[in-house]
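A quick word before the example. In earlier lectures we treated sequence and structure as two separate objects. From today on, think of them as two lines of the same record. Here is 3-phosphoshikimate 1-carboxyvinyltransferase written that way.
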Amino acid sequence: MEKTIHPSQVSGEVRPPCSKSYAQRALAAALLSDGETTLSNIELCDDTRYAMNVITGLGASVRQTGPTEYVIRGGLAPITDTINTGESGLATRLFTPIAALCDRRMTITGTGTMLRRPIGMMIDPLRNLGVQVRSNGYLPITVQGPLRGGETDVEAYVSSQFLTGLLMSLPLAEGDTILHVEQPNSLPYLAVTVDLASKFRIRMEHNGFREFFIPGGQHYHPAKLHIEGDWSSAAFMLVAGAIAGEVTAKRMNTLSLQADLAIIQALTKAGAVIITTPDEITVRKRELTGFDFDATQRPDLFPILAVLGANCEGTTHIRGVNRLVYKESNRAEAIVSEYTKLGMDVALEDDVMTVRGGSLSGGTIDSCNDHRIAMAAAIAALAASGPVTITNAQAVTKSYPRFWDDLDSIIRTKA
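And the structure line, produced from the sequence above:
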């Protein structure tokens, strides 16, 4: 699929989709609960759809009771020996420890780029916690539990997703567990995990996310949850407002624990006009200046931060490049290789991405099957001097299936 976006002014309101980070964690908790959980504001992007299929394969009963409402009867009792997590890194690393709670052989596989993303960090901790594991460091991985608890080190520099899987599964282990976390990253995502688990009455203690104590023998209690809007998705529309007009994102928790709420910090540093209430945010165009931003804990913001920086006067420095290697693409390389085709002055040095402001020229780029590369390129087109054509534009369905419709709805006039 190709999509062409012309230079345009924007004005209007959007309602970003639900947070897939919250949604996948909530689906996992619902699977592990002893009864019926009601989840509202669930929109099925590719990643969330795969998570829904996984919990069904692991024994949950799912009933849709409204356009975005689902009732899930929990119960970990697999009806299949193989689960497929698609291209979702979170689903892969979240549901592998959950599958390892079962005293039967389970194989976890995926599709596309997920087959090339590393999962070796899971092997030793799972074995240390009593699980039989067979894997070459990539999918597929075969596990046989039960996960028993104990004490182990967990590497969380490349990703905290596997740690999230352990935090959600180990409360159901027979014994207590102590986890020593090496170089924890994506700390806001761990805060989301702890918060979500607490809503199902799960207890755990931690010391600055570097050491966790998880009591075993706990039970997930059913809950009724509204899944909040996704700041990762909202970031694209808010930057559209900052560089091309005015945009309001509705039904957004401006006190959220989500990592990408930090887009507000970046927009503030750049000088955009920002108006917030507890449940919405408006961003309006103003002359922007280059800024420094540390994206180490929120690497998903890199593509749209690069676009924001390109529309600022002066130079922008974004730290945390090392977090981008194992995404849907090598995201740092994709930003440089594709966005330079649009005239962006962007370079990498060590752990820093430097973007020098200047007008973008338009052109054709490949999304590299990366949803965030595609969406950020579309936003870049709004303030470019010519149209931008994006190939493999269907990649947006991974997180924001109605992105193109939402973008069309706020385009008012061609620039």
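Notice the following. The first helix runs from residue 20 to 32. We will return to this example when we discuss secondary structure assignment.
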